[in-house]
């Protein structure tokens, strides 16, 4: 009896099989097959990087991302008197605000105040405001009651150099002309200098001379105009004079 029990237990033990672990869990797919295929429409030029580790240097039009530790010269606006009309006409908008009295340096706080004035006057209207100037000049101030010397001073604010007859603001939209005139009038009060209202298509300006009334750019580029001879002018005047009575 004991022999049959031991033989049955031995046969049952021999019948046991330990299955491998790979059979209990399906094998993972290779790494190459798990990658998501890129769509055929997604094409990248060979010279374009998908990312950049370099910080951008572009800031807003009132405060650029420039180094404030680097000192800047005060400088003067470059008045285009050599035949250039750049920046004196309306390009993108329908109306513009142009400074016409004298070149100067305008601070970012003054430009921001003028922009807020225009937006406050045109609240609720559909328009787009273009800024033709950008504050890229750092102004450094030594402070009050300080002795001469000891360096240039610390950074104070950003500013821009505006030449004479340069467009500062442009506006485009479904607006009445008188409404835009009033908005630009209020903005000109906030800014230093004297400003005028211009429309798109008005003649450009070279320095302080408008190219209108027969004046062309070629005439301004000439060094001098040829004057008639004195003898010829005197002869013509005497010939055209009436005879004495």
What are the SSEs and their pairings?
Blueprint: H1 2-14, H2 21-24, H3 31-34, E1 95-99, E2 104-107, H4 108-121, E3 127-131, E4 137-141, E5 154-162, E6 166-173, H5 177-190, E7 195-199, E8 205-206, E9 209-210, H6 217-221, H7 230-240
Antiparallel strand pairs: 1-6, 1-7, 2-5, 3-6, 4-5, 8-9
Helix pairs in contact: 4-5
Written description of the protein model:
The protein is 27% helix and 18% strand. With 245 residues, it is α+β, with helices and mostly antiparallel strands. The model is unreliable at 32-36 (pLDDT under 50). It has seven helices and nine strands, in the order αααββαββββαβββαα. Helix 4 (108-121) packs antiparallel against helix 5 (177-190). Strand 8 and strand 9 (209-210) form a beta hairpin. The longest helix has 14 residues, at 108-121. The strands form three sheets. It has a four-stranded antiparallel sheet, with helices on one face.
Number of strands: 9
- What ranges have pLDDT less than 50 throughout 5 or more consecutive residues? 32-36
Determine the structural class based on helices, strands and strand pairing. Answer: alpha+beta
On the 0 to 100 scale, the average pLDDT is: 79
What radius of gyration results from the CA coordinates?
Answer: 39 Å
Shape: elongated
């Amino acid at each position: 009896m004991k022999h049959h029990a031991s033989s049955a237990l031995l046969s049952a033990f021999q019948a046991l099989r330990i299955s491998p672990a790979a059979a209990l869990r399906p094998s993972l797919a290779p790494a190459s097959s798990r990658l998501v295929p890129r769509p055929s429409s997604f094409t990248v030029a060979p010279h374009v990087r998908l990312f950049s580790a370099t910080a951008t240097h572009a800031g807003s039009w009132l405060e650029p991302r420039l180094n404030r530790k680097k000192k800047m010269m005060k400088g003067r606006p470059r008045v285009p008197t050599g035949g250039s009309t750049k920046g004196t006409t309306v390009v993108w908008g329908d109306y513009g605000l142009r400074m016409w009295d004298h070149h100067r340096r305008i601070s970012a706080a003054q430009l921001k105040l003028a922009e807020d004035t225009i937006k406050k006057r045109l609240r609720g209207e559909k328009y787009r405001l273009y800024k033709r100037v950008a504050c890229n000049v750092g102004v450094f101030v030594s402070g009050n009651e300080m002795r001469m010397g000891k360096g240039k001073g610390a950074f104070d604010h950003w500013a821009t150099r505006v030449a004479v007859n340069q467009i500062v603001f442009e506006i485009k939209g479904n607006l009445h002309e008188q409404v835009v005139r009033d908005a630009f009038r209020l903005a000109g009060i906030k800014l230093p200098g004297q400003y005028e209202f211009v429309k798109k298509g008005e003649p450009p300006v070279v320095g302080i001379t408008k190219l209108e009334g027969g004046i062309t750019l070629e005439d301004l580029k000439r060094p001098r105009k040829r004057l008639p001879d004195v003898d010829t002018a005197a002869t013509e005047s005497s010939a055209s004079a009436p005879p004495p009575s």
